[in-house]
Amino acid sequence: MALVSFTTLAYLRIAFFTLVSYYLIFDPKTVFDYDGVIVLSSAMKLPLLLVNEDSPIYGTIGVVLFMSIVSDLVPLLEDNRQYYEAVLPTKLLIFFCLASYSYLGSYVYLCNSIVFCYTFVEIWFSILMFSSLKDESQSILKEKLVERNEKLEKFNNGELSETEFQEFKKELENDEYNKIMQEFKN
């Protein structure tokens, strides 16, 4: 079992990037001059970006970042784990490629301290969330399998009530039907 649940990690990511987008909109110098950004970019020998306080681009980037956070918040509030199971591997691939290009490339608009730090943090959160999500999914499947086996044993021993017996019998028939239909498709 994971140390931190998937939901907690997702909310932490949302809170962190909401804070970053807030600072990008109202005080971009805080983001660009943050010690973690400077240390990471210095260690990777990436060019540091200087802040032009009058540039409106930082606010635009902050709004776009905030809207991407909102798009991840809605599936989280609806407990749509399938969304995250589909999106996280794709995000990881894209962010790994972008981080690699940011580190190895020479195009200064993408190969700089901010882009690399952003992709680094996204990769870190995505790996933690993906790992936690897979652990939780496996434990849920194990619980369902144990519960089903217990019910099957009770079914075979005749220990279920009449309604439970009929419901489980229909469930078994549906499973058998789906299995046969799956074999026809293959």
Automatic annotation (TrEMBL):
Keyword check for Membrane: yes
InterPro entries (UniProt xref): Incr_loss_mito_DNA_1
TM region positions: 6-25, 57-76, 107-130
Keyword tags: Membrane, Transmembrane, Transmembrane helix
Entries under Pfam families matching the protein: Ilm1 (PF10311)
PANTHER family, alphabetized: PROTEIN ILM1 (PTHR28029)
Protein name: Unnamed protein product
Organism annotation: Candida boidinii (Yeast)
Lineage of source species: Eukaryota, Fungi, Dikarya, Ascomycota, Saccharomycotina
